[in-house]
Amino acid sequence: MSVTEMFSGIQGCLSADQDVREDIRKVVQGLEQTAREILTVLQSVHQASGFKDIPSKCQRGRELFCTVRSHLGDLKTKFPAEQYYRFHEHWRFVLQRLAFLAAFVVYLESETLVTREEVTQILGIEVNREKGFHLDIEDYLSGVLTMASELSRLAVNSVTAGDYSRPLRISNFINELDSGFRLLNLKNDPLRKRYDGLKYDVKKIEEVVYDLSIRGLAREPGSGGEE
Predict the structure, then answer these.
(1) Which residues participate in the annotated binding site?
(2) What residues bind Mg(2+), as annotated (predicted)?
(3) Which segments of the chain does DSSP mark as H helices, in order?
(4) Percentage of residues in the chain having pLDDT higher than 70
(5) Half-sphere exposure (Cβ direction) of 19: Cα atoms closer than 13 Å
(6) DSSP tag of 112
(7) pLDDT score recorded for residue 66
(8) How far is CA 60 from CA 30, 50, 63, in A?
(9) I want to staple 100 with a disulfide (CB 3.0 to 4.6 A). Which of 9, 63, 143, 176 is the partner?
(10) Per-residue b/e over 116-152, b at no fewer than 16 CB within 10 Å?
(11) Per the annotation, where are the binding residues for Mg(2+)?
């Protein structure tokens, strides 16, 4: 084989790889658009009137996740299953964002922490890498940490809306979440940096609760009505 033939073959491989990446990018763009739509729906709960419509916002969010499942189903067909990590960087960010959105929906519905298995059910993908397109543990944890930041914002806006018991419930939840993360030996640098941000979320929520306490507005969950 001549040098020219050899490099022609290499160019063919590069072109094929670029075609795959372009197909992936097109699907990911659709995922990103749907993720923005879900985020827009859910972030409306931060408005004073939004607290009354949380169930309907969550329902709308779950409806939009049907589109997400369709996009992810399409994405699976764009590359060989065994090459997941070769192309992972293309969808890693949007998958983390979708994990956050799924976690936020579940929290708003039940004030509980979504499991990795629940996220994969919402997204229509796998838990185990052996089964194909899946949700990495790191991507799941990143989504959970993003939710924590969103909840710190929700705690502040709850006070503005006159919901004084919600920040206490959020505080209890975030403290439990922080305790859970302390059990992990995080060696993933980006994830470790995200976890460092959780400390600030905890502090921010504690300040909200403290302010409510000194104003006599704090009520433990189940202790009675709000003032």
Answers:
(1) 150
(2) 150
(3) 3-43, 54-76, 84-110, 116-123, 137-160, 166-182, 189-214
(4) 95
(5) 6
(6) S
(7) 97
(8) 18, 13, 5
(9) 143
(10) beebbebbbbebeeeeebbbbeebbbbbbbbbbbbbb
(11) 150
| pTM of the predicted model as reported, rounded to 2 decimal places | 0.88
Instruction: Give residue 69's pLDDT.
Output: 97
Q: Identify which of 67, 57, 169 has the alpha carbon closest to the alpha carbon of residue 113.
A: 169
d(CA 225, CA 223): 7
Q: Which residue(s) pair with 134 in the sheet?
A: 126
Q: Would you tell me the crossing angle of helices 137-160 and 116-123 to the nearest 10 degrees? A: 90
Encoded amino acid at 123, one letter: L
CB atoms within 10 A of CB 8: 11
Alpha-carbon distance 190 to 138, whole Å?
A: 10
Question: Does residue 178 contact residue 198 with C-beta atoms inside 8 Å?
Answer: yes
Written as one letter, the residue type at 52 is K
How far apart, in whole angstroms, are the C-alpha atoms of residue 50 and residue 30?
A: 27
